[in-house]
Specification:
Largest interface: A-B, 47 and 32 residues
Number of strands of chain A: 0
Structural class of chain B: mainly alpha
Number of helices of chain A: 10
Order of helices and strands of chain B: HHHHHH
Strand content of chain A: under 5%
Strand content of chain B: under 5%
Structural class of chain A: mainly alpha
Mean pLDDT of chain A: 82
Low-confidence stretches of chain A: 1-15
Number of helices of chain B: 6
Oligomer: heterodimer
Radius of gyration of chain A: 19 Å
Shape of chain A: elongated
Distance between the termini of chain B: 105 Å
Mean pLDDT of chain B: 77
Helix content of chain A: over 70%
Helix content of chain B: over 70%
Largest sheet of chain B: none
Largest sheet of chain A: none
Shape of chain B: flat
Distance between the termini of chain A: 29 Å
Order of helices and strands of chain A: HHHHHHHHHH
Chain lengths: 213, 151
């Protein structure tokens, strides 16, 4: 993984998803929950919330929607616990479920935009207004916000799958093989999606840089 | 690309993410080809310039999420109870109905059919089937022809 992106991966080890098997501690916790200990499930939710919201936020770009996705992932985990076999860790399970939920969410959002000509970009703050606001830092912060806005716009132009694959590889540092497994795709397909995503984003960001010069 | 050994864009991207297997000698080529090295440097610069997605950890998020999930689970359980109660009542009603219901005997059913037959008769009387009577005439003529042939 490139050094520049190492710092932002605050939720995952470089090797990818956290441990693949349920460890002893997690097993004990699962047993407690299966025996009807609700506080055990709350403990589990508290432990994983930060990582799951972080992942969902990177994938969908909106804090509120990220929290909704995380909540849905936890509810699904609760439903699956009686049959949870422990082939993968809870963390891995949650990452995969959140990723799939995010893809569904992004697809729905894209469809909505197509149907109602709704443009999420219009809801983003106008950079001119931001610049005229004396309370805000008009220097680097503004540039960073504008760059992020352009990146989000670029990501929104991609297909839901391309967006998620790019985000998982570039920002979360997941190996392509694991991304392919979690999305049920061939590694070759994931590579092709990553290629298209990077090519499109480079074009968008280049246009942004030219405009901002 | 200046020759067929030069790396494709996809290969350069995979190399950037350390996902390019060097079975085809692409990495070796990259170290010796100025053009590919330059393309790779440009790609790396572009990708490194992408804004960072820093997720600021919210320490209260876990507690909030636990409360949200608990509430939803509670709602789900409380929604299940009335549904379960209604299903139980419906099931009991069905059992009681089946227990009290005695099937009607065949005689009764026949009687019903018989009682309904006069209505059908009167209908036939009111609406004689003319086409059918015409067909009967044709059959009579056919019978006559057969008799003549026999003679």
């Amino acid at each position: 993984m490139p050094l520049s992106t190492m710092a932002i991966v605050d939720s995952l080890p470089v090797s990818g998803y956290p441990q693949n098997m349920v460890d002893t501690e997690e097993k004990a916790l699962l047993e407690r929950i299966r025996n009807g200990d609700d506080s055990g499930f709350e403990q589990l939710v508290k432990e994983h919330t930060g990582k799951i919201i972080g992942l969902a936020w990177r994938l969908v770009g909106n804090r509120e929607e990220a929290e909704d996705l995380a909540q849905e992932a936890f509810l699904r985990l609760h439903r699956s616990l009686p049959t949870f076999r422990g082939d993968s860790s809870i963390s891995t399970w949650l990452y995969r479920t959140t990723t799939r939920l995010a893809i569904d969410h992004l697809r729905r959002e894209r469809l909505k935009r197509k149907l109602f000509f709704f443009r999420q970009d219009n809801e983003a703050p106008d950079p001119v207004e931001l610049a005229s606001d004396s309370r805000r830092d008009q220097g680097r912060e503004l540039l960073a916000q504008e760059a992020m806005r352009t990146l989000r716009q670029g990501l929104n132009k991609l297909s839901a799958r391309q967006q998620v694959i790019f985000t998982l590889r570039h920002y979360d540092g997941l190996p392509l093989k694991e991304i392919a497994e979690s999305l049920g795709l061939e590694t070759g397909t994931v590579k092709a999606h990553l290629h298209r995503a990077v090519t499109q984003l480079r074009l968008d960001m280049a246009e942004y840089r030219e405009e901002s010069l | 690309m200046n020759n067929r050994n030069c790396l494709s864009e996809q290969d350069l991207i995979l190399h950037y993410y350390r996902e390019l297997p060097d079975s085809g000698g692409q990495v070796r080529h990259l170290s010796g080809c100025t053009l590919c090295a330059e393309r790779f440097a440009t790609l790396s610069r572009d990708l490194e310039k992408l804004p960072q997605m820093t997720h600021e950890p919210d320490h209260a998020a876990g507690t909030r999420m636990a409360a949200r999930v608990r509430e939803r689970l509670h709602d789900r359980r409380s929604n299940w109870l009335p549904a379960l109660g209604a299903s139980a009542v419906a099931a009991i009603a069905l059992v009681v109905t089946l227990a009290l219901w005695t099937p009607q005997s065949p005689q009764v059913q026949t009687a019903q059919i018989v009682t309904s037959s006069p209505a059908l008769t009167s209908l036939d009387e009111d609406m004689p089937d003319i086409d059918f009577l015409e067909d009967l005439d044709v059959l009579r003529d056919l019978e006559l022809l057969r008799q003549l042939e026999g003679v």
